[in-house]
Amino acid sequence: VQLQASGGGLVQAGGSLRLSCAASGRTFSRYGMGWFRQAPGQEREFVAACSWSGGRTDYADSVKGRFTISRDNAKNTVYLQMNSLKPEDTAVYYCAASYASDYVTRSPSLYAYWGQGTQVTVSS
Predict the structure, then answer these.
(1) DSSP bridge pairs for 69
(2) What is the Cα–Cα distance from 30 to 9, expressed in whole angstroms?
(3) Which distant-in-sequence residues (6+ apart) come within 8 Å of 76 by Cβ?
(4) How far apart are the C-alpha atoms of 67 and 69, rounded to whole Å?
(5) N or C, fewer C-beta in 10 Å, the chain?
(6) What angle do CA 35, 67, 124 make, to 5 degrees?
(7) What is the pLDDT of residues 57-95, one digit of tens each?
(8) 42: exposed, middle or buried (Cβ count in 10 Å: 0-12, 13-18, 19+)
(9) Rounded to the nearest 5°, which phi and psi values hold at 75?
(10) What 8-state DSSP symbol labels residue 87?
């Protein structure tokens, strides 16, 4: 499966953005999906994940209550709604697909496919 992330940009602190990740292929619903981010000089970190149905979700503590992951299997797309953005949310955001479809995982090694990343910059 090929993943294409979009929706990043420059936003002021307290603002919102919605990232989208469009997947190619007809088997999108077989994959669990996740969002990760990487800031300059830092390791890639888990942000959010959802199961194939979207019924199970998981969030990093740093974004819980502010970010929401969702998916539309009919559109082969997963979303990350980001509210109350903070400067420390600035990073390149990546979507990823995991064969572990029925549960959520934070481990990057369990994600088989990755998108190209989209830059999110939050100004103070």
Answers:
(1) 80
(2) 30
(3) 22, 23, 24, 25, 28
(4) 7
(5) C
(6) 105
(7) 999 999 999 999 999 999 999 999 999 999 999 999 999
(8) exposed
(9) -105, 5
(10) G
Q: Tokens 């936003």, residue?
A: 11
13: Cα within 13 Å, side-chain hemisphere: 5
Q: What is d(CA 57, CA 53) in angstroms, rounded to the nearest whole number?
A: 10
The values of phi and psi at residue 120, to 5°, are -120, 125
CA angle 116, 50, 60 (to 5 degrees): 80
pLDDT tens digits for range 43-59:
999 999 999 999 999 99
Quote the tokens at residue 56.
Answer: 């199970």
> Beta strand pairing status for 3-6 and 17-23?
antiparallel
